[in-house]
Amino acid sequence: MNDILSQMREDLRANVDVQTQKSFQRFFKEQVKYYGVKTEIVGKIAKKYWKQVQTLEKQKIFALCRELFSSDYTEEAFIVSFWLPNYIECLQPGDLATFKVWIECYVNNWAKCDGFCNHTIGDLIQKFPEAVEEVKTWAKSENRWLKRASAVSLIVPAKKGAFLQDAFEICDMLLNDCDDMVQKGYGWLLKEESRKHQKEVYDFVVQNRSVMPRTALRYAIKLMPKELKTEAMKKD
Questions:
Q1: 23 in a domain, yes or no?
Q2: How many structural domains is the chain composed of?
């Protein structure tokens, strides 16, 4: 396994792009660790090595993912996000306990959080709908990224209109959170649910607009017609 990690890291270092390296940090408020490799190239590297590791035992694949996360490099976290959705047939609801630990220990910016949760956890929830109950409990965490994860893990199914009531439950728990990363996360979830459930999301926003942070509210109504946006933005 160490050979695979070493080879991947050599490939990442060999593909550093000067312009990407210069602009990478500007997308984040917190200091992040990165090589400066274009996302498209990271995806190609991930695909190349997935062909080598996909036949390994689950325990070994998870060990590799943990090592990639623990390096703190954003691109190495991206590789995990590329790998595990391709491994969905082998994932089980019980794996959420492992994923929760990874988020608590290794996720420290929005890109790592969203890249991992949108598909790996989102795909797992779609495969095992009962798993959403565990993810909802994350909204009560003290960890900002676990709270954001509770919302953004439902983004992909929300685009199809799924898990609406679960989304509302998560948003209720996060409603007054003062962290803008959490506000943007649940606002994004409401926005995606509004694709199929515009009236329900609009009603939720209007019902809660007196206490909902404006950051979350603006995200939630982004796809709505101008007249609904104007009405939703009114202060009670």
A1: yes
A2: 1
Tokens, residue 21: 């390296």
Q: What does each C-alpha distance from 142 to 104, 179, 195 come to in angstroms?
A: 10, 11, 30
Q: Which two three-digit tokens encode residue 18?
A: 């000067």
Written as six digits, the tokens of 41 are 């190239």
Tracing tokens 């607009």 back to the chain, one arrives at 209
**Which ranges in 24-109 belong to alpha helices (H)?**
39-53, 58-70, 74-83, 96-106
CB burial string 179-199: b at 16+ within 10 A, e below: eebbbbbbbbbbbbbbeebee
Residue 136 lies in a domain: no
44-54 per-position pLDDT tens digit: 999 999 999 99
- Supply the range of the domain harboring residue 22: 1-90
Rounded Cα–Cα distance for residues 54 and 57 (Å): 8
CB count within 10 Å of CB 162 equals: 18
Contact 154, 185 (CB under 8 A): no
pLDDT (tens digit per residue) in 58-84:
999 999 999 999 999 999 999 999 999
Q: Per the structure block, which two tokens stand in for 167?
A: 């989304």
Element containing residue 220 per DSSP (H, E): helix 214-220
Q: Model pTM greater than 0.90?
A: yes
| Residue count (the chain) | 236
CA 85: distance to chain centroid?
13
Q: Where are the beta strands (DSSP E) in the chain?
A: none
Comparing CA positions, the residue from 191, 107, 168 lying closest to residue 141 is: 107
